[in-house]
Design a protein that fits this description.
Length: 238
């Protein structure tokens, strides 16, 4: 027997806290009966939330690292029927992406059916490192690099200190390549950080996520994580 909230969170439906809320509101059914907080279930119990059946995967987890190409949506399904990152992975498991990359952003993206690890990797308290390479319009100045390093205001919050390094610049195309390491994951965060100091991002690629890089993967290629890598991810989170 396992705790109902854990089984649902592990399925990736929602975080443990959100799941407890749903149970409290009476939105979770077990074999057709309204569930209660703290309830335990076994693998034969049928769990539904608003009519959706939650799969108890009994800890049968899969983990993929994808080098996401441009022009693909990071989502489980697209209303307009466009291709999503899930379509690129050949698996029968119900996997989903760990966080998001924009439609036009490329690079390291983790996908899994392990909801617990997903929630932990995405939780701000764990400060998971993401390294990006941005090609921006203009030759960035040292002053502006320092501004981004120290934190800029985007939307209504100030970004945490970041590592920022000018990799190269090209006077004839008037562009710069900048390495930026952040530990947050707000929507369009990197693009907005550059915009905040007056530069437009032309191309963005995530070189690594939580120390997993995609150097050996071509665009659109993916691989499964090794047990060691999964253990390392768990050791990084609380
Ligand atoms: N920051 C962005 O602006 N876009 C991404 O896809 C990821 C980080």
């Amino acid at each position: 027997m396992e705790r109902l909230s854990k089984v649902i969170a592990n399925s990736g439906f929602a975080s443990r806290r959100k799941v407890d809320e749903l149970i409290s509101k009476g939105e979770v059914l077990v074999n057709g009966d309204v569930a209660v907080l703290g309830q335990k279930v076994n693998s034969n119990d049928v769990i539904t939330i608003n009519g959706e059946v939650i799969k108890n995967n009994n800890g049968n987890y899969v983990y993929y690292l994808l080098n996401k190409p441009r022009g693909i949506i990071t989502s489980n399904h697209d209303e307009k029927g466009r291709k999503t990152v899930i379509d690129l992975i050949d698996t029968d498991e119900r996997i989903y992406p760990v966080g998001r990359l924009d439609y036009d952003t490329t690079g390291a993206l983790l996908l899994t059916n392990d909801g617990e690890l997903t929630n932990r990797l995405l939780h701000p308290r764990n400060n998971i490192e993401k390294i990006y390479l941005a090609k921006i319009q203009g030759i960035i100045t040292g002053t502006d690099i320092n501004k981004i390093k120290n934190g800029v205001v985007i939307d209504d919050f100030k970004t945490s200190p970041a590592r920022v390094k000018l990799k190269s610049y090209n006077r004839s195309s008037n562009t710069s390549l900048v390495l930026i390491t952040i530990h947050e994951g707000h929507n369009h965060q990197v693009k907005k950080m550059f915009e905040a100091v007056g530069y437009q991002v032309d191309k963005l690629t995530r070189l690594s996520f939580a120390g997993l890089d995609v150097k050996k993967l071509k665009s659109g290629e993916y691989r499964m994580l090794s047990l060691k890598e999964v253990q390392r991810l768990y050791s990084m989170v609380k």
